[in-house]
Amino acid sequence: MPLSTVATGRKDVTSPWPVREERRVVSVLFADIVGSTALTERLDPEDVRALQRAYFDTVAGVLRHWHGVVEKYVGDAVMALFGARRSDGLDAYRAVRAALEIQRALDRRPMPGGVRLRVRVGVATGEAVVDLAAARDGGHGAASGAVTTTAARLQEYAPAGGVVVCAATHRATADLLDQRALAPVALAGKALPLDVWRVTSPARPRRPRHEGPLVGRRRELATAQDQLVRAAREHRPRWVSLVGPDGIGRSRLLHELRHALREVDGVAVRWCVAHCPPYPQGALGPVAELVRDLAGVRDSDPPAVVHRRLTTLVDGLVAPARATPTVAALAALLAAPEGTATATGGPAACRQLLLALAARQPVVVAVDDLDRAGPELDRFLRALFAAATLRGLPLAVVATHRPQLADPLPVPDDRRCRVALAPLGAVDTGRLLRRLLGRAGRPAALAGRLLPLVGGMPGYAGAYVAASGDGEPGLPEAVRRMASARLDLLDDARRAVLTAGAALGVDFTAPAVDRLLGWAPGRAAALLRRLATADALLRCDRHGRYEIVDPALRRTAYDRLPRAVRAEFGRRAEQWRATAPGRVAPTRSGTAAPRLAPPRLAGAEPAPALAAEQVSALHAERVSALAATAAAPEGRRKRNATATRRNPVSPGSWSGLDGPGRWSTPPASSTRDRGRSGRHRAADGLDPDRSRRPISGGAHEDRVVPILPRLAAGPRRHGRASDSVAGHDRPLRSAPDGRAHRPSSPPASTGRGSAAVVLALRHAAPERADQTRPHGGPPPRRVA
User: Does the pLDDT value for residue 206 go beyond 70?
Assistant: First the structure.
């Protein structure tokens, strides 16, 4: 049965997405004319009709500009949806900006008969069931939920010409809009009064605040810093891109890079940084912010102070005859970045000022969130980079953006560097969570529960800590917005595959996805490979089992499914589980490997996170096993090289130690032998399959001993704390003789169930007061 029939009960609907309806968090705008009843009583019906046409045409044009969908017209009221089909994580912001623009557009446009229209607007954000096929202009009944009624009730409390928002909309736009709290209002049908805010105007771009040391980005920071140093020394401009999804820490790395590189060979480096707000009012607003950063001008400075500081900046950089026109052009740029004079003289004056400054000292022009900027900023940066290259100036451009944006400047590879930011490793994530919890006054033990939810995303860590409570951690609103935007960047087929994988549980295979979606066998395999390689949203092991990298993405995708589709997915998953154990899954090498265990499936609810008590028990079990192995004689120690333990991330699978701190899944022969001849060995926690050998080279005892002090005695550092490369750590290990050494080769890639998870959980726990070393000697100095 097609999934569209499951969702709607109708067979006459067609939709490219496997489900017709989704549970989505949307923002609803409701606008109504003030005094419309008295107005229609006073005017002739034909005049009323002409007035309504002009009014609806104005409102609909503004809504289309802000990517809203007109859900219905009710008399003289308009209801629109934002985020109904596609979300960019800024749905609430776009809805409020559209509400403000509607007020200004009605004030500017003359209405028939000289009537002046005033409207009230309410904006509410919440969950609704959205008919995806009907989510278009005029699609009546496209959304159902309490959020639509709340928006209609809110506009009744707005003043004439004003915009009021609910608490959820306020939280989503607090840093982007100027808002003023109003008295709580009692809405019909609501048990408690609602907090409301009145929005007055868009706020000036505010630079993000970054506190505390940087965690886990030494390699990326060193790479970017090296490129800037080479540009200054060689007098060859370079373009450096810091690339990663939202929440990965792009702005944080740019902030650290600015403070790390203050001079090159004794010469001070001049930085000018601009932050691109979402949907900026002026196309050249970031260029104006570059000038403010150079001159030290604040938004609140009066015109006289701005003129004086601009004069000081220009003095000596341009010819005296051109100083006055340059100051005037820059002042016009700061006053009205979207004016006509700005488009002609302001950017050119800023570009000449930067080039003149680069002739004296190294200059770094940084733009945060370049993917939010318009083509005008791209042209400005292109012209600046080309002029600096032609003159051989020590200038560099640093841009941060999401992976979907290609580098705007086609330059040779030796002058272009793309620094991709991967999720943090488990150890670094644990350290970050512990510091954030300490700063927030929360117990450090919460890090054990938050670690599997964060997924190595620094932005997620801050949101989870801010929303952490005594109960089970929920999905924070900020994290859900970021995950929704990543999910909606995919086309329908890839979204279907990812959603099916989320319904299957922690890990899944291509045949299982085909079965859930009702596709022909083999159709999902290519899509899964693309999601794992090009999109980097999945992780695949050597047995062909996939796992969604971002836990928030998995939960968001599953939460969108209606209850009927969840139940149907659960039924199909149970059927698949009943037939899957005898099947053979191909490995990456092309050979067939027996399936280790049937896929762990989710019925009507997502797989819950591992409880803290389970994590503690598994952690103690691994520490005891490693201690027993390290203390065993050499012969038995080699036999115990493949001791299996339960995987902390996937309790239904088994893992073995094979490499420096890496836990991998044993072949199926181990599971067969465990039940056939290993009953007495299972009591000792040993692998019944004696013939299995570690995948990595080297003696097992040389690998297990360095890991044991880290697990038993807490986080220790010798010299540099760690070198983090693409989420993998190479810490200095303590040898049995008490000396510190670094492994000769980097550890093998850690996957699901790796010892890095155990290390991170140990790092996330409170540090022990006793710092005695397990091999004797004074305790090493801890390096933050």
Answer: yes
